[in-house]
Every structure is written in structure tokens, then in C-alpha cells.
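Dear support,

Our group has been running a series of protein-ligand predictions, and this particular one with adenosine-5'-diphosphate is the one our PI (initials K.S.) wants archived with full inputs and outputs. We had some confusion internally about which version of the output was final, so please treat the block below as the authoritative record. The input we submitted was:
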Amino acid sequence: MEKVEFKIGGCLLEIIRGDITKQDTDAIVNAANKQLAPGGGVAGAIHRAAGPELWEECKQLGGCETGEAKITSGYNLAARYVIHTVGPVYNNTPQNAVDLENCYLNSLDLAVRHGLKSVSFPAISTGIFGYPLEEAAGVSLRSVIKFLKERNKPELVRFVLFGEKDLNVFKKTLQEIMKSSQ
Ligand code: ADP
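Confirmed final output from the archive:
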């Protein structure tokens, strides 16, 4: 099974395996660096798929702090917008979870303030930034669930996991969270 979904109030939380650059949600979220520069990993893939105009717009934004989020157009992407958020570089301190939670909350807040109905997220910080996957999955899912319970928006939040292992960790973690909250 490549997909799981849960209803949270009037919203849908989906977990799928796939490529975030291909998602047709209103926005996709970029796991960006503080310069909002193309770089490697998911950011490099998003900039390549969106085209050079994305970097031109990002240059005007004056960077982004850890845990914060900024929005741009999606250019050649199927998604109309890209929300750029800077995850923590993992160093095993309590601040890491605070920063990672803020990435999700601030990205979703920006999406809702722009009237967007659907948003796709990658597993922020779990690549080059070194956040252990199991730990990041728990923080990420709890943050999104908290936002959806409080705000009942957006209609759809989709986690797009690149690898099979990442997908399985997110699926298992979501099932555990939903079971323990019933
Ligand atoms: P960070 O610097 O925040 O750790 P990375 O880009 O290194 O960001 O990785 C974040 C996650 O995004 C990793 O799990 C990586 O496997 C995943 N990833 C890389 N490319 C894609 C893609 N095209 N679609 C979805 N996820 C991707």
C-alpha cells in the first residue's frame, strides 16, 4: 500500500510515496536553506522543475530564518505556489523539535492566509540536515495534526516521501499517533 489517509475534522491528511515536484496541490513546501538558494536535495529538485525564475524571485526575499516560511510563485510546477521553510540542522538539542514544528505551523499558516486549500510537504530536515527519520516523523505529523485540529484548514495536507523506508516510517508513526489519541 503506497498511500494512507486520515480524516482530521473536515481535513484530510495523506501520506504517499512520490516526487514532491510532481504534486498538483495548491502549494508544495520546499525544505530550503537560509539563502533560499537552489542547492541539493529536494530544494535543488524543486528549483530545477520550477525553472530559473524561482531563484530570481527567491533572491528578492532576503533569506529566511530557521523555522520561518516564505511564499513564492510555482512557475513551471503544477503547484501554483512554493512555500519555502528552513528546517533545523540537527544537533540533538530540544530546540530542534521546536524549530521543526515551527516549519510546519508557519508554512500552513502562510498557506491558509493565502486561501490555499491543499499543501504537500517533504520530510523537512531528514536529508542533508540530518534529523533522525523516526524522530522527525513524530514531530512533523504531530505539528500538522495540531494545526488541522485548531484551524480546520487547509482541506488537504499531503506528506510526499521519496523513499520506501521514509514512507513506512511515516505511515507507522501516523498509525501510532492516531491509535493513541482515540
Ligand atoms: P534538508 O536539508 O531539510 O534535510 P533534503 O533536501 O536534504 O533537506 O532532504 C529532505 C527530504 O526530502 C529527504 O527525506 C529527501 O530524501 C527528500 N527528497 C529529496 N528529493 C525529493 C523529491 N523530489 N520529492 C520528495 N522528497 C524528496
